[in-house]
Specification:
Asn_synth_AEB, asparagine biosynthesis, Ntn_hydrolases_N, 17 strands, EC 6.3.5.4, asparagine synthase (glutamine-hydrolyzing), Rossmann fold
Length: 599
């Protein structure tokens, strides 16, 4: 395990300085990731991670460092950090979605930064931030609630598409990517075609032994079919008897058209369920929402080890970038013709078997709701949640969605989070384009998820790449207005238009989508005793964040098969596992005044 930090660790450990300067940032840990560095007088530039630009491109980029043109340093293929220095100032750039994490804090009058939070927490003695944990559990995609806070008080995350610029004593968080949509649908499709093909080609041409997810869904299977044009690879498809769907059928049809792909359905561990072997999941730097899926993940990846894969492709991030969130209807009402709006409403309502009139009325109401009012409404929903109300499509159309987890919070935790959101609402920009803002917030939350996913998967020794999260791929998708991500009868129109002729048409026009809820409920029943023990000894309950009785009642209902907040339960379990390991790895972390809800 490695990380980058802006100072050399005081304790003896394997470190690699980026430059020869005495105060150069260091990569900590054995077997550091690929690094490319360039220098010229007072200029320094380092690119760390999976960057596929030629070395000469870095030398040519030094003028951009002098001009502080940070965006120019993020146009190369791949996924990587950029660290640039000009005189006393150092800029640390995360990628557009934030999967290349950068964190910062202040300590003894200096700005300290690293790509992991734990080294900073150990340096500063930072306590856990219970208010931040409550926000991340309840509404992780709402930037106004999470406020780029981490699980440690005083340690913040640099949001995707931003740079941390510091001279060690002061800091600025600088955006380097314009967030307003700038492309028409044909322009975005053309850019995505080039970016995605390039992202896959570089990886396929450099990997010694390549493997890829072939789920049968659009995202991962499209990548696998692109990789197939470059040479041999192993395609892996999941079979799950608990959740019958047509994913395997689409996978088989695509593989039949491949030229170089060897295809397998993992036979080992097909009985694996969510919530199995909870204590076996590797620890991550921040709480990781998929920790409870480790048993399923490892059984699925077993063929990668048998094949000797040196690089594995996944479709991670595709849904976030390519699917239209329900609030796209509100944007469509604002920006498109009434005829186009009605067509979208009818398609939305038909798929969900809802009244078009109800959907249209809800979309019009949201279209007339400013950010300030939407945040106030969301805050009150958290303060006084309805315990037994089922969330319908009309509630999901709301700009900030629903906050089902709020039912499980203690009254004090709900009040604290609601007050924070009310305060944020008063500072909201009156003309903020909400659809674009929400799309970027969701992308950045997914970037933080991806960072922990890759850290967890690194424990099994197979590097896992997500080409959809490369900067140029993200740019091409985010340049399109959110409402244009949706077309009646088409699952992901932008991807279909971009890859037409490169990927089988029957896949690009697929209208169905596989679901795996059966695995979750089956795993829940099988591991009910372990989950009840976890709640009995709950750190979240002890810290005054979660109400034990409310969660236990919900667990009892879920175990009987009653539909409920199973995704929220998964988040809760994952945070419990993280807290147990964090608190058990050292003396119990103290809480500052106001940092804990426990009385």
């Amino acid at each position: 395990m490695h990380w980058i930090q802006g100072h050399r660790p005081p304790q003896p450990t394997a470190t690699t300085p980026l430059w020869t300067d005495h105060d150069a940032p260091h990569v900590v840990g054995a077997n550091p990731p690929p690094m490319h560095c360039a220098t010229d007088r007072d200029l320094r530039l380092a690119v760390i991670g999976d960057c596929y630009a030629p070395r000469s491109a870095l030398d040519l980029a030094l003028p951009a460092v002098r001009a502080e043109d940070w965006r120019a340093l993020t146009r190369w293929p791949g996924s990587y950090w950029v660290i640039a220095r000009r005189g006393p100032w150092t800029a640390i750039l995360t990628d557009l979605c934030g999967s290349r994490s950068v964190y910062y804090t202040r300590h003894r009058g200096q700005v300290r930064w690293a790509t992991r939070t734990r080294p900073l927490a150990e340096l500063t003695g930072a306590p856990l931030d219970d208010a931040a944990l409550a926000a991340h559990l309840t509404c992780p995609t709402v930037t106004e609630a999470t406020d780029h806070r981490t699980a440690y008080r005083g340690i913040h995350r640099v949001p995707g598409a931003h740079a941390l610029v510091t001279d060690r004593h002061t800091l600025r968080i600088v955006p380097y990517e314009p967030e307003a949509p700038t492309a028409t649908f044909p322009e975005a499709a053309a850019a995505l075609r080039v970016a995605l093909y390039t992202a896959v080609a570089h990886r396929a041409n450099t990997a010694q032994r390549l493997s890829a997810d072939v789920s049968g869904g659009l995202d991962s299977t499209s990548l696998a079919m692109l990789a197939d044009t470059h040479g041999p690879l192993l395609g892996v498809t999941r079979l799950d008897s608990t959740s019958p769907n047509d994913d395997p059928d689409y996978a088989r049809r695509c593989v039949a058209q491949a030229n170089h792909m060897r295809h397998v359905f993992p036979s080992a561990g097909q009985d694996a369920r969510m919530f199995d072997q909870l204590d076996a999941a590797p620890s991550t730097d921040q709480p990781f929402s998929d920790a409870a899926r480790w048993a399923v993940t490892t059984s699925y990846r077993q063929p990668l080890h048998e094949y000797g894969s040196s690089l594995h492709l996944t479709g991670s991030g595709g849904d976030t970038l390519l699917e239209a969130a329900p609030y796209h209807l509100a944007e469509a009402y604002r920006t498109q013709s009434r005829r186009a709006f009605r067509t979208r409403v009818l398609a939305f309502a038909q798929v969900r078997q809802l009244s078009p009139r109800v959907i249209a009325r809800a979309a019009r109401a949201q279209a007339r709701t400013a950010c300030r009012d939407a945040l106030h409404q969301f805050a009150e929903q958290i303060r006084t949640p309805q315990r037994h109300r089922r969330t319908g499509a009309t509630e999901r159309i709301a700009w900030y969605g629903t906050a089902g987890f709020a039912v499980w919070l203690t009254s004090r935790a709900r009040a604290t989070l609601a007050e924070h959101l009310h305060a944020q609402a008063e500072q909201a920009q009156p003309d903020l384009p909400l659809a674009t803002h929400r799309a970027w917030s969701e992308l950045r939350e997914f970037g933080s998820y991806q960072a922990e996913l890759e850290q967890q998967l690194s424990h099994d020794g197979v590097p896992t790449h997500a080409p959809y999260l490369d900067n140029e791929v993200v740019r091409s998708c985010m340049a399109l207005p959110v409402s244009h991500r949706s077309q009646p009868g088409v699952q992901k129109p932008l991807l279909g238009a971009a890859l037409r002729g490169l990927v089988p048409l029957f896949l690009l026009t697929r209208a169905t989508k596989g679901a795996y809820d059966g695995n979750a409920y089956s795993g829940l029943r099988r591991n009910a005793a372990r989950l009840r023990t976890l709640l009995t000894d709950s750190h979240l309950v002890e810290r005054g964040i979660v109400d034990q009785n409310t969660v236990r009642d919900e667990l009892d209902r879920l175990v009987t098969g009653v539909p409920g907040r199973i995704a929220a339960l998964e988040r809760l379990v994952s945070v419990e596992l993280w807290l147990a390991r964090t608190l058990d790895s050292a003396a119990r972390v103290p809480s500052e005044s106001g940092g804990s809800y426990a009385r």
